[in-house]
Amino acid sequence: MTHTHSHPLPPAPNRVVLPMAVRGVSLAAALGGGAALAWAFTNGHAQLAWSAYLIGAFFALGLGVFGALWLAILYLAGATWSVTMRRIPEAMTAWLLPGGALAMGVALGAHSLYQWSHADVVAGDELLSHKAPFLNLEMFTVLVGVSLVLWVGFAALFVRASRRQDREGGMSATATSRVTSALFLVVFAITISIVSFYFLLSLDAHWFSTMFAVLVFTDVMQTGTAFVAVVAGLMVATGNLKGFINQNHIHSLAKMMFATTGFWAYIYFCQFMLIWYANIPEETAYFLRRSANGWLPYFLVLPVLKFVVPFLLLLPRDAKRNPVRLVPVAMLIIFAQFWELYLMVGPAIGHGAEAAHGRLPGVEFMTTLGFLGLFVLVFGWSLERQQAVPLKDPALAECLAYDS
Fold this sequence. Notes:
Elements: H1 20-42, H2 46-77, H3 87-92, H4 96-104, H5 110-113, H6 119-123, H7 126-131, H8 137-168, H9 172-199, H10 212-238, H11 247-278, H12 281-289, H13 296-314, H14 323-345, H15 362-383, H16 396-400
Helix pairs in contact: 1-2, 1-15, 2-4, 2-8, 2-9, 2-10, 2-14, 2-15, 4-8, 8-9, 9-10, 10-11, 10-14, 11-13, 13-14
């Protein structure tokens, strides 16, 4: 199918460059995160430092892999409304290489984080001994490393095809990306399970959950969509890409964010409800740990941050079309993702008499801000090196005429 431009295109936009203020704040956040980690290490809080590092590294890694995931979903769905936003997820994938390397650094702190990394503990624990062929540092390094390499490879294929279309035009690059998308989604379903199991679920190595990988997938989708909404919303509010991104495009993007918010609530409640109803000790231990030692208030705040408030604020149609109202909600969702990761990691650090107690996550928050700052700097570096809009995509005219 070919597309013709029934109306002249708007003037070609300049390349998008992050404002100096954004780059300055991102750099300051990165330095602040590094300082928080350094303080924790030098003051003998290695476990705190490594748990903060894990939260920040996984937070940023989720944003990076979302770029590839969103491209795959949109290509397969034939979502032409998103063509003028494509540079955003493409630039997000630039984090996968440095971010993947930083995430692998968690292995260096395995003894501070994971019970299964201690041979003496495993030897005296029947369940951990049973899981030992899977839960060991060699398998961690190989399986997580291969998963991250696959993410980097597929992201590179998406970006390379898009650049080829920038040079040559035509539908060939789009057709290639659709095939790549189908393959990637299968690979992603397997690898996100591996990565989430090793990094997060194995912190509670005695716990069982068949829904955990699905929950992490919803986290990636909700937070990644929120980040795209922040960038696209600011572009519309500041007049960047005028004529290429308008309220109709923002509306559809916001509807995706709204949908993922509802989907997260469904998955999160289902996991809790099924475990509560079955009342099996091996399963309930996860939630009992997060309702004791001062963790209950933090636990109860999570669904408010991640579902109740965003859901209510995004209900009106105007809230999904007005960047002034949309961007703050998206930023709240991004913060809520940090809060959820803190609840996944914090209560799992320490066991028995040394169980972790609930507290305000100062070092964890500063470290996550540091990783987010680094992510934004890499994102901006990638964004400004490409055309702001894929002008030779045959679906561009249909995108510009889109009416939500």
